[in-house]
Amino acid sequence: MGEPETTSPDPLAEVRQRAYQAIDQWLDSFVPLLSTPEAPTLLELSEHLFKTRSQLLGDCLQAILDHILSHYTQLRQTHCPTCARLLYRKRLEPKKLTTLHGTVEIQRPYFYCVACRHGPHRPDGTPAGRRHSRSKAARSPPCRATW
């Protein structure tokens, strides 16, 4: 007899769970539209979908970003990309970003090198000291959107 198969845990289990919750909430938003005596028209369904899609996609994107960036928010020290000095995290900065797929919030560790006045790039691609309320993809045309 062979050894029992062992399956490795799903690395995206939490992301899937949060995405399923977002889909459930999104589907619940259709209840008022579908509870009327007359069936909604294709136009009404399409308008509702258009109006609510960014919340669904934003929630799914948030779950993925939280998973991807979890190690980044735990970062306590890093090296300055300019002078290689060891930098210690000053604080975590919450930042809301508007993307092509909805609004998300990320936690960014704040590092700053006093010696060369430089900070490492953050997970949203902006260097320290630069403030944008929209992601690079949201500021660019959709065909040029990149991660």
In DSSP terms, counting alpha (H) and pi (I) runs of 4 or more, how many helices? 5
What is the average per-residue confidence, as pLDDT, rounded to a whole number? 81
Q: Fraction of residues in helices? A: 25-40%
Uncertain parts: 141-147
Whole-number total of structural domains: 2
What descriptors fit this protein?
alpha+beta; two-stranded antiparallel sheet; 5 helices; 4 strands; 37% helix; elongated
Summarize the structure in words.
With 147 residues, this protein is of the alpha+beta class. The protein has 2 domains: 13-68; 76-144, no CATH class. The protein is 37% helix and 16% strand. It has 5 helices and 4 strands. A two-stranded antiparallel sheet has the order 1-2. It has a two-stranded antiparallel sheet with strand order 3-4. A hairpin with a 6-residue loop joins strand 1 (77-79) and strand 2 (86-88). The longest helix is centred in the middle third of the chain and has 27 residues, at 42-68. The termini are far apart.
